[in-house]
Structures are given as structure tokens and as C-alpha cells.
Amino acid sequence: MTSPQIRHRVDPRAERAARTILTGQRPRLLRQPVATATVNERRRDPRAIRDAALVQRQPRPRYDWARDAASAGTTAAVGVAVANAPVIPLQVIAEPAYLVLAMLDRPGGEVSEHDRQVIAAARLLADAGGGAVVTVATGSGEALAEAGSDRHVALPDGWADDYVPERRAAAAAALMASLSPRHILFPDSPDGGDLARRVAAAAGERLFAGVQSLGPDRATRQSAGGSLETGHRPTRLMTVAADAFAPLDGVRHEARPLDLATPVVAGEEVLPRLGCARRLAVDPDALSLSETDFILSAGNGVTDWQSFAELGEALGATRAGSRVVCDAGHLPRERQVGASGTVVSARCYLAFGIAGAPQHLQGITGVKHVIAINTDLHAEMIKRADLSIVADAQEIMPALIRLIRERRHD
Amino acid sequence: MTDAAMGNVAVLLSIGRHPVSGRSRRAATDAQALEMALALRPRRLTAIHAGPAADAEALRAYLGMGLERLTLLVLPEGADPVEALITHLRHLAPSLVLTGRQAEDGESSGMLPYLIARGLDAAIVPDVVRIGPADTPDATYGKADLVQALPRGQRRALTVTGRLIATVHPSAPPARASAFGPARRGVIEPVAAQAAADLFLSDCEHRPWRPKPKLMRVKRGGSALDRLKAATESKSGKGQLLINPTAEAGALAIYDNLVEQGILP
Ligand SMILES: Cc1cc2nc3c(=O)[nH]c(=O)nc-3n(C[C@H](O)[C@H](O)[C@H](O)COP(=O)(O)OP(=O)(O)OC[C@H]3O[C@@H](n4cnc5c(N)ncnc54)[C@H](O)[C@@H]3O)c2cc1C
After folding, report:
1. What does the sequence similarity comment in the record state about its family (chain A) (predicted)?
2. What is the ipTM for the molecules in this complex?
């Protein structure tokens, strides 16, 4: 390949000046040129600049003009620099001026996107005056360090699964009394919003619900059915609207367990008025595609519709299909996934005989886990999937039904 | 015996606001709350609105759903309705109070049901889609079974003891249509009430809402190439690939994978 080659430009004046000896009565010129050839700095060498900006040659050249000239190494250096990404410095707030509490949902033990956004909003308030963010959630705080948490209060693990909002509200009120934080933020999700309103009603304080923008001296929210923007100084209790703040990245905080004088579980004494909470089984086909968590989807490669229906029932999955299937009338139109159908955000998508056209893949960008069954090894769906099986859908479906029934009877 | 628990029901109704035209209408979830209350066939059903008397005409849409009378607690403009409602409800002593989740106009903070629950010392359950008297054998007086809507279309059943305030979720049974004749014939009974002005709201500044740009999940940092890749390339999976397995082996791989993901038990 062509290596970056420096072309020495001839600068006759500079050469002549280097050969001139001024010591005698009159200037003399040396015969041999002196090997100086200083590069004239004011000249641009477009080839060298272009080579320095090249970050990728295959399959087509790409250039990064934003890179500064100093860091611009050779082409290969870029790949290495990305591989060992710079270590994010740990930010420590040893003596916080005040505390900002973030009460997180953490549904199913995972830190949700909304939880991260709440921490980002809490950081806005904390960083304005040297405060620290205290996260309160079930589970340990390690996962929250990169989201921007300075201190963590772990709620008892058992609270993650059962629904006793009164107990959580009592714990929040206890924390409010013992830590006297300047602000407490909640996610404005069904559970987080419920908790926030319980705490606000118990404390007799005003709740600023669904904050859309936040600064140290002004918070805004939507009111009057979304037609007005209401602004006020940040109050003590606020809930943060979904998708209003970008979650932090590229930061690392301590998320150190906070030692409390009084335990948080003071809430156990509350006699709960809500009880016997249990999840109900819902008919998966009655759910809309955008809501459901598990989708069984068919494409043009499925011909055995009897097995497909049985499989949907056995798996407890919501049935859906590609456009071809809906056009042919095998499934109703509202069961179409894709650009002109429904954009789904299921946790798992099981696709039988779908080629993976761009219009279809657009509909499943939000899906976490994809399993694809296709006879064509080179189908786009196979590339997208987390588990791909190159096989005939009509053979896999009955085998899977049999397997599920077998396991269920064990 | 069972309907004794649901004998006395109150519904709190607000005046809604059409999201596009801005016209007054019946609020969607409040109408569903009234529908739920009517379906319970309580011995006594009280519908209450608190607000300025000038807005009363918009309430006739609720009367058209089959209510005979509706109590209007007359408050001055900009007053906080919570205290007046609590005082009135204490007097009525209902075993169940139904409301919508959030008002369509005004502050719409969703705090009202919680403050009323506090004032009446009642339990509060949000996002209810179904209510019935408890059908457990030891059903004592004042126990109710509820079904609550969760995100992603899931449902949760609950049992509640004592007096209950429930807010209704939009996926509850739809409200019946409002008929014109009953809406004209129904009676709105004004009741004078005391209320203090809401100082917090007058302290806030209001301006028309301007839509904000949607939050994009952009990846910051890294080289231009990384950012370009993150923005343009579709996510590709981790790519475990089985080529032409037997049907049983393929099915087993899918099954194990689903179990691993926690989808199947
Ligand atoms: C404007 C526009 C909007 C569109 N919107 C959408 C949309 O919203 N949603 C959508 O889905 N499509 C949409 N499409 C259509 C899209 O372009 C594709 O035509 C469609 O997605 C293809 O569906 P398919 O993969 O089921 O069928 P095919 O492309 O026919 O693919 C069938 C696949 O099944 C495999 N197969 C065949 N036999 C078997 C077997 N026995 N076992 C296993 N696999 C087998 C084949 O290898 C092939 O990969 C849109 C198109 C346009 C122009």
C-alpha cells in the first residue's frame, strides 16, 4: 500500500541562504548544498492531511476530518486507540454540600433507561453546588456507578418482587427525615409516580410532577393536558418525565453504600391495606404488538398455519407476521410488524421464515433478543438474530411444540 | 352482603379538555370511572365536581351517561379543590371513591386522589381496571378485589381492606356514550364550599407548551467512525448459528435459549 510519503519541496531562497557564508569581506556561496531541507511549515501537504484523516480503507475509504493533527497517527493506530478506551476517571464527592435523592424503580432488578435518566437529572441538581446523588433501590449499587450515583442505599432484596407501595413510601419518608436531602427525584413511571405521590401526600409537600427540563433555579413541566409549560423553582419532591433527560455516559462515580444511623426498614411496621397481590395470566393475543413482551412471528416461509397457531399457544407468545403474511390474509393487519405495521419493543422475537427486509428490520430495532429460523443462510434476519437456525420452519415448529408439551408434563 | 361493601360509592368528575381543539368535554378516564361506578350498581352513587359554577355546562355530558343528579361544589376560580372535597366526602362517608388518573386541564399533577386518601384515611390504588367485592369465603365487611393495569399489558390482582380510593386506567371498560335527553333532564345541585386560593400555582409561570426535540440516543465519544457506525448500522445479534440441525436439536436449542432469557419457566 502507499505509505505516507513526504515530498520535499524545493525552496530556492532558503537553500541559497543556507549556503551563504557571511564571514569574509563579501558574501560567498558554498558549492555543496547543506543538507538542511527544512520543511516549510506554511505549506499544506494535502496528501499527508488526507492520509492522516483516513480511518478506514475497506470496504470504502472513510475520513475523520475532526481529528486534531497531533493525535492523528497512522491508519492502524485508530483501531488500537479504540480498543483500549481511555479509563474514565472516578469522580469522588467526599464532603457533599447537600444530598439529592433518586428513588429508582429498578423493575425486575435491572436498571432501566428511565432510572438512568432520573440519575442524570439528579446530577444536574447536585453538580450545581457540590452536592451528591444518593440512589435508593433494591439490589447493590455497583451497576449504578456508571450511571452517576455517588452514594447508594439498598432496600431489602425481598421488596423487588412483591407489591407493597405503602412500605416503600414509609421507607422513603424515613430516608427523607434522616438524610434531609435538598431534592428527591422519582421516575414518573406507573410505580415511581405512585410512590412519589404517596410520599408527597404523607409529607404534605407539593409534588412537581413530570419534570421536562431542570436547572438549579428553574424546573418546568407540562400542565393543562400538555398545552402549557409551567415553570417554578425546583421543589423538594419532583418526578422526572420519561425521555426528557439524556442518560449520562462516560462518567464513573463511587456508588458507595451509605451508612445510615437508622435502618430503612422502618416501614415494616406499617400495616399494609393492600394485600394478596399476584400477577394474572393475560391472553397474549389480546395484547397489542407494541405492548407485548414476547412475539412469535411468521414470514413467507411458513406454510403450516395450524402448527404456528398451536406453537403460539404453547409458548404463550403474541402472534405476528411480516407484511407478506398479512397481505395474504393469514393474520389480521394489526398483527403486521415493520415500518408500515407496528414498531415493537418486545424482549424476545422468535421469527420463522422471515427474510429480514429493511422495512421489517426497522420494526424490530427495539427488540432485545431475536431468534430466527430460515432455510437461507444468507438471509438478513439470520445476521440480525442472536440465535439463528438454518432449517425448515415446518419441521422445527412441530418439534418445538412436542418439546414444550413434554417438558410441561414432567 | 357482598353489595354492602360497595353500597356507597362516590365518583369525582373533572372537566376535560380536548387535546386538539381545547374545548371542554367530559374527561376520558373520569367518564370511565363513572362507567365503572354505574356498573357496580351501588345503593347510593354520588357524583361530585368541585370548581367554578361557570363551567357547569360541560358536566352535562356525565349526566347523559345515566346519572340523575350531580353535586357541584362551587369554588372561586383558581381555588384548591382538595379541602372542599375532603370535607364533603367526610360527610358522605363512601366506602369507595373512584376518579380518573390525572386531570386533563389545570395542574394535572395527579395528586388529588392521594391527598383525598390522606384526608379520609383511606387506601389508594392507582390504575384500576376492574373492581368487585372480595369473593374469598372469609369476606368481611369492606374488602374489595381489584385488578390493576401494569405496563406492557400485564394485570395484577389485589385485595384491599377498608375504605378505598381508586384511580381508573385508560384500559378499563370504555365509557358509554352520553345521551342528549338525560343530559338535559339531569340536575346539577350547587353546594357552596369553602376553599383557599392555590398559592403555589399562582407562584408558577405559565406559557404555551412548545414541543421539544425528541431525545436521541446518540453515542458520544469514540472516533467519528464509531459514532457513524452506532448511528447507521442496525444492531446485529451475537450470532450463535446452527446450520441444518435435526428438527429435535433445533427445537431444543430454541427452548434452552428461551429458558435462558427467562421467557419460559
Ligand atoms: C413501502 C413498503 C413498506 C413495507 N412495510 C413492511 C412492513 O411494515 N413489514 C414487513 O414485514 N414488510 C414490509 N414491506 C415488505 C418487505 O419489503 C418485504 O417484502 C417483506 O418483509 C418480506 O416478507 P417475508 O420475509 O415474510 O417474505 P420473503 O421475502 O418471501 O422471505 C421468506 C423467507 O422465508 C425463507 N423460507 C422459505 N421457506 C422456508 C421454510 N420452509 N422454512 C424456513 N424459512 C423459509 C426464505 O429463505 C426467505 O428468507 C414493505 C415494503 C414496502 C415497499
Report:
1. Belongs to the ETF alpha-subunit/FixB family.
2. 0.87
